[in-house]
Amino acid sequence: MTDRYASFVRSGAGRALVKRLGLPDPPRLRRFTPGDPLLPGPFVLDGGGRLADRVGRMLLATGAAMRDTTPDVADPTVRPNATNGALIFDATAVSDSNQLRRVYDFLHPRARSLTPGGRVVVLGTPPQECTSTRAATAQRALEGLTRSVGKEFGRGTTAQLVHVTENPDEGTWVSLEATLRFLLSGRSAYVSGQVIRVGAGRAVAPTDWNRPLDGQVVVVTGAARGIGAAVAEVLARDGAEVVALDVPGAGDALAAVANGIGGSAVQLDLTAPDAPQRLADHLAGRHGRVDAVVHNAGITRDKTLARMDPDRWDTVLDVNLSSQERINDVLLERDLVPAGGRLVSVSSVSGIAGNRGQTNYATSKAGVIGLVESSAPVLRERGISVNAVAPGFIETRMTARIPLTIREAGRRMNSMAQGGLPVDVAETIGWLAWPASGAVTGNVVRVCGQSLLGA
What we know:
There is one protein chain. The model is unreliable at about 70-80 (pLDDT under 50). Helices cover about 40% and strands about 15% of the residues. The strands form 2 sheets. The protein has a 7-stranded parallel beta sheet, sandwiched between helices. The chain has 16 helices and 12 strands. The protein has helices at about 5-10, 10-20, 50-60, 70-75, 100-105, 135-150, 170-185, 225-235, 250-260, 275-285, 310-335, 350-355, 360-380, 395-400, 405-410, 420-435; strands at about 45, 85-90, 115-125, 160-165, 195-200, 215-220, 240-245, 265, 290-295, 340-345, 385-390, 445. It has 3 domains: about 1-30, no CATH class; about 30-200, NAD(P)-binding Rossmann-like Domain (Rossmann fold); about 215-445, Rossmann fold, CATH 3.40.50. By secondary structure, it is α/β, with parallel strands linked by helices.
């Protein structure tokens, strides 16, 4: 779907009008293309916390260049000419609110130094793991800082806070690298203002970071079109053997997706009573396991609650939420998801903020968040991660049917002033499905361009 406003403001006449009237100015987002360098310029890393040394070595090993912090601060004449691809601050040593000034002192002189599509990442400690109330207070304050930076810096810049456990194991470091590779690259173009937790646990680094899903069997539900088709394509690009699943009525479109990526197609109505067992039988017989399950299938049946008939309520809850529970239960009960497996569900910002006319949909998507949060501690004991993505306004056939005024509001009410693309959701799901991301669990990551709606 074409965003005609964004196309107009990138023209000569459009740029002049935007500047004169102060209209929304959608930037060109830096999206991922295989073979791209991690960053469009050098990164600056500072903070002196417990993570900085290893993170610096980790990023240098990717081929990224690190800029010396000293001249940037000491010589003001350097700042206007210095362009950076990323600003990374290790705030794990911040243990008192007075020490938050360190983050300001790092970001303030460099705020205008980022290239278009630059990245800001602050590394912190989960407040609940802090040993004092003052430290927990300061670490929690970082959330407001990063979210504000995401709204201020502009030009496609994203800003994130990454909480890293106080007791890291080797899995933590592997998953931290996976997370930084995602957040610093063009894969995260439409993800900003997020808090991501990296804990301890099972995670395996790939032999080749360009194919982080090599040898992995991944199921994608609702794969015939839209976001699901994009997810299947991204996972296959990253090396996965994709089992694409959708209802029989979408059989032709599903076959086209599966054939296009060299995967296999399964026609199955997830609401059928025997659907979980049939899927489990198929996976057991063809593959012997499933390394990752992407619960993408979802529907809308919109009406205000007063006008909503029971069938609209029941159908949406069954497809969007209950079917995920039933499938997970059977696959886990039959041990088809091995240690190191990953479950990724698609929620929505509607499940966080609610939405008029979508009580059924918002309930189901909030339930998906509840499923992730309640399952994560239990599945961690089995070495299995579970996370969710929560898309905002994504340009699909479904959003194309939204009335123009509402559609334009959805596009502009975020820090990027534009709608996202299905590939933005797919890239985020891909990262969470990597074996290297196994120590990232219990997260709900919004893919919404930092929408103004919700938390």
